[in-house]
User: Fold diphosphomevalonate decarboxylase from Periweissella fabalis.
Amino acid sequence: MNKAVTARAHTNIALIKYWGKKNSELIIPTTSSLSLTLDKFYTDTTVFFDDQLEQDELFLNNTMIKNKALTKTSEFLDLVRQMAGIKAYANITSVNHVPTAAGLASSASGFAALAAASSKAAGLDLNRKDLSRLARRGSGSASRSIFGGFTEWIAGEDDLTSYAHPIQENVTMDIQMLTVVLDGSPKKIGSRQGMQHAIATSPFYDTWVAESAVDLVAMKHAITNNDFQALGELAEHNALQMHSLNFTAKPAFTYFNGDTLNILNLIQDLRHQGIQAYATMDAGPNVKIISQSADTQIISNAIKNNFPSALVEIAKPGPGISYL
Assistant:
C-alpha cells in the first residue's frame, strides 16, 4: 500500500477465437481459446491507492475519464480491494499504445496491465495464474495477455478453473502479424453485445463450439510441430467461422466493411502466388495478416498498392506482463 506500481501488458490476437460467454458476470467463455501475444501494441498502467481520494480517478492517454470506462474500472478495482482487504480509492494513469476500440484488443492489454499494477499496489502478490483469473474479470482476452507468446485460455466452469496458461512463451516459429488498420474509429457494436447476440440467435452456434474445440487441438499440434502453414490455415478458418455467426444472427450484423472483404481477397491472391499469408480478424473491420519475415516486403507492397490509406504495423511475438 501507499506505493505506485506500473505494469506493462502487451495485446494478444486470438488464433482460436473466443466468442460468447456461458457466465457473463464471471466472464466464463463457452470455448477455450489460443492466442499470440504481440510486441508492437501494449498498455502501461500506473496505480496508486490513496486514502485521501473520495473516488477512483482514471486518466487515459493524458485525459481524465469520467464515463462508463471509469465505472467499469472502479468495479474491477472493487475486486482488488476486496481481495486485499482495503477501502482506499485509486489514481489510475494508463497510456494505451493500441488503437482503442478498433478491433485490436486494446481491452486485453488494458485490463491485464490494470490487474498486475492494482494487485501489487494493493499489497497482493499474485502468481501469474491468479493474475490471469483476475484480469479475466475485466476482459476475457486480458487473461491471455498475462503471458507471452502462444497462450491458451482454458474455458473452465467457474472462477477457479477459467484461466490462461502459456503454450510456448519463447516462440521458435518464424511468425509475424501485419496489422492492417482500415478504420480506426470505435466499433458500432461492442464485442460483449455482439457475442451475446450471436450466442442467443445464431442457429449455428453449437456447431461453432464443437468445431472450435477441434481447431484448438489441431492448433496446439501445429505449434508443437512448428507447422506455419497448418497454423495459418487453422487461424483463418476459425476466424471466418466466428464471423459467420454474426452473419447468421437474427438480426444479422457484421464488423466487416468493404475494405475488409477486399483485403481478404488480396490475401487469397497472395497465396495463389505462392506467398504464405493468412487472415485473422477480431471484432472490428481491421485485418491481421499472419505471415513470415521473408514475405514482409511483398505483402506490405501489395497492401500499399491496393490500400494506400491503410496503416500497416508489423508485430512479432511479444512478452508477458512486466513491471516498470
